[in-house]
Write a structure and sequence with these properties.
With 260 residues, the chain is mainly β. It contains 1 helix and 19 strands. It has one helix at 2-18; strands at 28-38, 43-46, 50-55, 59-65, 72-82, 85-95, 98-100, 103-111, 115-125, 128-138, 149-160, 163-166, 170-176, 179-187, 193-204, 209-217, 226-233, 238-244, 250-257. The strands form 2 sheets. It has an 8-stranded antiparallel β-barrel. Strand 5 and strand 6 (85-95) form a beta hairpin. It is globular, with a radius of gyration of 21 Å. The N and C termini lie far apart (58 Å).
Length: 260
């Protein structure tokens, strides 16, 4: 009888601990494998969207492109993790021609053997309250570089011969676990808002050079291409990158680290 009571106690303890939710450990790089929208009547599942999400220790960024029409979107901000949840505070986001105001989202997180699932209840999509479920697969690798983090572009110009052209755009970039992404918004030739993104893998080639390989992008010409980039760090929170092209032109970008 004592043994039987002991068995019941052990089973009860196991049952209790198996339902306890832990604080999710989010830092890493993740590919979205599916997105499901429930509008209260039916589920609509998408598996063809290309999205990468990066979490650093306290910052996050995502970038998404639809291969069918190159419609793109991205968001950047900071986050906090608690028991079974992540609170994301977007400080900037853009989608197609829309620039969004800062927003806060509560994500219900369930870790999986390959990554995690996030659910945002009662999010407004197309003026309709819906439940949004996204599944992610971890793709990052264990490595550390001086560029790890989320950055905001502070200056950008191109040089061709003796001509220097500055462009006005808002651009963010993230590096972590061997993956990178960028997202920008700007005015096109018709003065309309335009959003572009790109993401892929990166690796350092010594202290002052980096190789980026685009896996998905708004710009089809960039997909599958690799770029060698010269890097100049100014302390730990600022850097300059320069890309030189075969025609002799180059693009120069300056970045400042975002902090919570």
């Amino acid at each position: 009888m004592k043994n039987l009571i002991f068995c019941f106690a052990v089973l009860a303890a196991i049952s209790c601990t198996s339902t306890v939710k832990e604080t999710p450990q989010m830092p890493g790089a993740y590919f979205m494998t599916s997105q499901t929208i429930n509008d209260g009547k039916k589920d609509t599942k998408y598996t063809d969207l290309k999205q990468l999400k990066i979490y650093t220790n306290n910052m996050m960024m995502y970038a998404q492109v639809n291969p069918v029409d190159s419609a793109s979107g991205f968001g950047v901000g900071f986050y906090t993790a608690d028991t079974g949840t992540v609170i994301e505070n977007n400080i900037y986001s853009a989608r197609d021609t829309i620039i969004n105001s800062p927003a806060t989202y509560k994500l219900n997180i369930t870790t999986t053997p390959d990554g995690y699932t996030q659910v945002i209840p009662e999010i407004v999509i197309n003026s309709q309250k819906s439940n949004l479920t996204e599944e992610y697969q971890s793709v990052g690798k264990a490595q550390k570089t001086p560029l790890d983090g989320v950055w905001k572009e502070t200056d950008f110009y191109t040089v061709k011969g003796i001509d220097t052209t500055r462009s006005k755009r808002t651009q963010f970039k993230a590096y972590y676990a061997g993956y990178f992404m960028y997202g920008h918004s700007l005015k096109d030739s018709a003065n309309r808002n335009f959003t572009g993104i790109g993401f892929g893998t990166f690796e350092m080639n010594g202290e002052y050079k980096m190789k980026e390989t685009d896996l998905n992008s708004t710009y089809s010409i960039a997909v599958g291409q690799s770029y060698m980039i010269d890097i100049e760090m100014n302390g730990t929170d600022n850097y300059k990158q320069t890309i030189s092209y075969p025609d002799g032109s180059k693009s120069v970008e300056y970045y400042e680290r975002l902090k919570k």
